[in-house]
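To: structure desk
From: M.T.
Subject: fold request, one chain
Message: Could you run this one when you get a chance? Sequence is below, nothing fancy, just the single chain.
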Amino acid sequence: FSENTKTAQTITWEQEFEPMMVGDKVTLNATASSGLVVTYEFADGESSERAELSDGIITIQKSGNIALVAKQSGNEEYASATTDVKYIKAYAYGDANGNMEINSADLAVTVDYAIGNEPQEFFFRAADVNKDKNVNVADVSGVVDIVLSAPAATDNASGNAREFATSDNMVSILEGNSLNFYFTNKEEGFLTFQCDIRMAEGS
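Reply: Done. Structure tokens follow.
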């Protein structure tokens, strides 16, 4: 049979994708009217860098837009068929405002939500970095860690913060004494501060 004389087949793929997180997996469920097995491909090279396809299961590896098509290559009786492109939006944990970047703006909206406000641009799943279905101070701390370790954080403030956070900066305070911190915000932006308190044994 030539391709023109083969029986046409259609692929039904009604699956709608919710925003997904890095590490998420989902089984793809397209079917062909011929009853033949449907396969899936990435529609562009960038998508193949952001996810993995294996046996009809997609696993998210990086944030970004992922473009997919479903295909059936046909056989001696049926002509090949391909669907339109479907898209998955994939996010990384820490991207609390859902703009595909992780920076101090994500920390700001996470703090805002954690203290009881309702920030306009807020993606709960991305802010819930410890995956306990709550967004609280533990997640704020987690977002801080992600922001400080993000490769994109190369400005002086982030660099200084990273250097301080990864060094052994310990100060001992004797009983009855105090330690004061003073901050001068020289430029418009978001200032974060984190310290750990280690109590003496028996305290």
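Reply (cont.): The chain has five helices and ten strands. Let me know if you need anything else for the meeting.
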